[in-house]
């Protein structure tokens, strides 16, 4: 209960979750079947149960592994990824449908959801990739291929595959993050996937630009991280977030970086480079790679520690420049989640970044001359969920006589272990533009379209669905 007694929470026991062991790093919500209620996608990273105990279910808890039951018993150590590039021995992913009654959720069986992959899932992005009115999902997986799923009319998901290695569903990279937004202004949401770009793993982040035709049966995304200057070179990338930081009408990207240092488990006067030891394991097969007791001891070691995070400003049509130093975004740490939110309600996005081994970092965004409009959508709770997740907004206007359109879709979680501002913030420039003919088109998720003219800005508007 918060002090003003206007808000309270009650814990609800979901039978499926109460009886199921989970090793979950990512979850997200979407209205899968367009019934007006938010469903939940729950992803597991590691095995939920140790796989070699065939006569009983033994939940995986890395802090409480079973004792050996016979000489040379190593079953308790068999839970790491089986491959550096295509691990498919992680946990299951579950789609929990919102029932609207006291049990809240029921799990949709794998045979119906078609979520059959068991990869090392770290982040989930939601988006209507083919603009057919049903929310699709992207799952970023460590140690191998990411999973793309088209929502087939709220009945099941269909995994998407390219034809050649390196294309959608066939990449062998290390997906750490899934951030979704329209970066090039074509009215379709793109997907940014953080990754590592260092010696022994010089892959870099992925940027999938959405070229999918409306109502297409298959998706079309072109990879362009290097072309658009979002490769995140010489960094160990984690979470990222999208938002218009400078209010120029284009979506920017903030990237968290840095793996681990030895601050919490110092062992030697000078820490050791863990990659030196890890190089031997990375080239082995599953019989070694997937057993934790075969890995080197990481205590007292570092892996690309205390790196600079990045701010990449979109100067138009998805072309990015690195503005980290210019904006004095100068901390160095091992950061993870990134939150963009207007904490002080002044019309610009502030930045909060979590730190693996210390206090978070908070940066207040101060733009003195600006024009903007913020939109909070509220669904009717019948055809559209109250949070309006999955609803789409087009803002059209004239700026100095030039016609412009910005597009955004309402999401909940959007990144890695972070949730940003649910309000949609549209930047309209530096305060010197002549803005006119402003209008909102709202496509409520599973609902009708609304057209709303706007005669004023520099404020937040709450728009409720009829």
Structure, described:
- The protein has a 6-stranded antiparallel β-sheet with strand order 12-11-15-16-20-21, with no helix packed on it.
- It contains 4 helices and 32 strands.
- The mean pLDDT is 94.
- The protein is mainly beta.
- The longest helix is centred in the middle third of the chain and has 9 residues, at 274-282.
- It is globular and about 80 Å long.
- 43% of the residues are buried.
- It has helices at residues 15-18, 110-113, 274-282, 286-289; strands at residues 24-30, 39-44, 93-98, 105-108, 120-127, 136-142, 147-152, 156-159, 179-181, 190-193, 196-198, 201-202, 206-210, 221-223, 235-243, 252-257, 272-273, 301-302, 307-308, 310-314, 320-322, 332-333, 335-341, 350-355, 358-363, 372-378, 392-399, 402-409, 424-427, 435-443, 449-454, 460-464.
- It is 5% helix and 35% strand.
Question: Largest beta sheet: what is the strand line-up?
Answer: 12-11-15-16-20-21
| Binned strand content | 35-45%
Look at the helices and sheets and give the structural class. Answer: mainly beta
Return residue spans where pLDDT drops below 50 for at least 5 consecutive residues.
none
Secondary structure: helix percent: under 10%
* Rg of Cα set: 23 Å
Count of discrete alpha- or pi-helical segments spanning 4 or more residues: 4
Structure summary, number of beta strands: 32
End-to-end Cα distance, whole Å, is 31 Å
Overall 3D geometry? globular
Mean pLDDT: 94
Q: Major beta sheet, specifics?
A: 6 strands, antiparallel
